[in-house]
Amino acid sequence: MRSRPWVAACFLLPALVLLGALVVYPIGYSLYRSVFDAAGSGFVGLKNYGEMFTDPTILTAFKNNLIWVIVAPSVATALGLIFAVLTERVRWGTAFKLIVFMPMAISMLAAGIIFRLVYEQDPHRGVANAIWVGVHDTFTESSAWPGAHPRPNTDLKPAGGGSFRTASAVSSAHPANLPLVGVLPKDAAGAHLAKPAPKAEGGGVSGTVWLDFTPGGAGTPGRIDPKEKALSGITVQAVKGGSVVASAKTGDDGTYRLPAKADGARLTLPASNFAQPYNGVDWLGPTLVTPAIIGSYVWMWAGFAMVLIAAGLAGIPRELLEAARVDGAGEWQVFRRVTVPLLAPVLAVVLVTLMINVLKIFDLVYIIAPGSTQENANVLALQLYLSSFGTGADQGVGSAIAVVLLLLVVPVMVLNVRRLRRESRR
Q1: d(CA 291, CA 288)
Q2: Which segments of 191-317 does DSSP mark as H helices, in order?
Q3: What is the CATH number of domain 33-131+283-425?
Q4: Model confidence over 294-353: pLDDT tens digits?
Q5: pTM of the model
Q6: What is the DSSP annotation of 8-69?
């Protein structure tokens, strides 16, 4: 280079031209544009920067970016470390690493579409809620006939909290039939036909709970008609003096039987019979939308962290680990006192790389967050786009956000470069 600098300049010129066109000029123009108004004709000084720190929407973006920078890199790095250490000890470790790393081959756009479906509220479409509802229903019994209620002008009256109770006491001398409506015909399509309950022996109380509706409207209200369906699994309680003295469930034909102590009681149909089925968690609601999107990011980038950490782990001298074990250290102590300190440089590279990456996160938030909660999930890169090209576009504010985002990324990049230089000198 000293003897023929023009040769070096010729080789460097294409790269310098590209850097100037794609990096230097955009940065310079963003700085220039950030001190002008929306039209680009009026100089406003630092007004756009002041608006950034007073606009609630942009402040929400700052807050969410802070959450992203703290949570996403930490969780992804921690999972990568765990996967890298554990897969060293299993035969199928390579296959496991391949599976964990595979999401890196998917674009952010595709991952966003995938997780938009995963987080669907409807358990029949969203995988997350399908699993959540399945676990919930395993431990909590679902209601028998959600939405059912008594016919108007019958003996069954609302008793508060979604339950219903007879206005008069029942007697063993007469069947206590309880007609209900509000069940969709398609939901009762597979139900058995309702039957009148036989008289209970020993002074007990019996009756039928059925869907008091005949297709075509030919039936008589309050009477069990031949084509009307039974409502099975309904809990019927006998209440005296405010206490439940007996309880029974209707069978497939809708009939139930209560013991003699139910004679003279009022019958109650608890609210649990009619509660709407559990529909899962609103993953993309205002409260959980940011954690949900961070979860999709971790799914993609934990494999990246695992591969880098596994490479660092392969370079650790095994004699140090064996020496620690010989000295009586347990596996947890070896991991905490030897493995992690030796991996500190690699962990720092992974953590800083992911921090730079999440500061610029855009695709996942834009695709996964629905319009109703996009403001709750907002981040600076998304706000930059919305301010510049959305409704009421103001490229002055958008440029100011771009400059601030650059200022947030540069210190992390400088720190990473300095640390890499120090490592190379060693």
Answers
A1: 5
A2: 289-314
A3: 1.10.3720.10
A4: 999 999 999 999 999 998 888 888 888 888 888 888 888 888 888 888 898 889 889 989
A5: 0.78
A6: HHHHHHHHHHHHIIIIIHHHHHHHHHTTB-TTS-SB-TTHHHHHHTT-HHHHHHHHHHHHHH
